[in-house]
Amino acid sequence: MTAAVPAVWYVYLVRAENQALYCGISLDAQKRFAQHYAGKGARFFSTSPAKALVYVEECADKSTALRREIAIKRLSKSAKEQMVLAYTQ
Question: N or C: which end of the chain has fewer CB within 10 A?
């Protein structure tokens, strides 16, 4: 009998049309972005639609992803923008 492979979780940032950044976690960041882009899954995008998935970070498990999400949400907007800039280079 083989052991179950632990699921990889992702922390991601999505840029809204108004340039705001939304932080979330998911098992599939691309699929989750597609949901946000379609206007589903987060009230955050009810006032300004999702435009781009701008940052993705792999985490070992859900607990780690949740802790990282909290840490990112506590960052200033400029610190988040630096993360996005570093990720896209």
Answer: N
3 within some domain: no
Domain extent, residue 59, equals 9-88
76 belongs to a structural domain: yes
Question: Looking at the domain assignment, is residue 54 inside a domain?
Answer: yes
pLDDT digits (tens, 9 = 90+) for 38-87: 988 889 999 999 999 999 999 999 999 999 999 999 999 999 999 999 99
Query: What is this structure's pTM?
Result: 0.91
User: Residue 44, class by beta-carbon neighbours within 10 Å (0-12 exposed, 13-18 middle, 19+ buried)?
Assistant: middle
